[in-house]
Amino acid sequence: MEDGLGGFLKSRRARVTPESAGLPGGSRRRVPGLRREELAQLAGISVEYYQRLEQGRSQRPSPEVLNALARALSLDDVERAHLETLAAVPDHDPPVRAEAAVRPELERLLALMDRVPAMVITDRFDVLAANTLASRLFADALAGDGNLARYLYLDPAARDFYVHWDEIAATTAAQLRLVSGRHPRDRELAGLIADLSRESAEFRALWAAGDVDIRTSGGKDLRHPALGVLTLHYENFDAPGDPRQRLVTFTPAADTAAEAALQLLRTWAGTETETGTEGYAGVSMTGSPPR
Question: Ranges for the HTH cro/C1-type domain (predicted)?
């Protein structure tokens, strides 16, 4: 599932050009990025030791070595933290499971958030619960097994729903790689990554790039079949008591078309919830809007 410390080092080494590191380039280079001996020289360690690290034959490098490698590879804060995680995960520790249930208090909070779409998801992108607006907005994504990553890469409809599909696909793969470094013995995560790698050429290419990322907030343009494109701002909030769950909210800017569209979606939902339609994972979810 996870290439480990050696794989991550190799992917970052391939990204650094000799020129950016102050080394001579040339057209006769047979590998992308830096050679092993060049990186070892920049980090101030022996070539033999670096080779053992990259080949997985040496574990638990010291903080000084990790800092030197991070500087030589020009790692950002997220990449540096990932490097430290890969170097520190003990082989014998039991896996930290991503719980499949949401605390009742969190479900009630979702139900009370009736003005913005909101959902609780795991770091594997499993949707555990969604309020009425999120259930309506993400109806197609939730129609399958409720995993947003599986929908993103494997359902052709996702390319229309996510206006900037390429960007979201890249960041989702990078987030999954970060999680796989933290939880290398998560069998469900390993199965998800194996399925995506087998069935999606785009995911295979993105996974092979070795990038890692964290998205705590940002913007998304979503295309609803009846309402058109909605420009929304999302925020991620870690769920207290479960480090692998988070609450995600989607808010429109004031006095925008997206705000008006969500108001219309609330109106449709309010009409249909009078029929007592059961919700997604216990939180109110309604059927298709009028066409």
Answer: 33-78
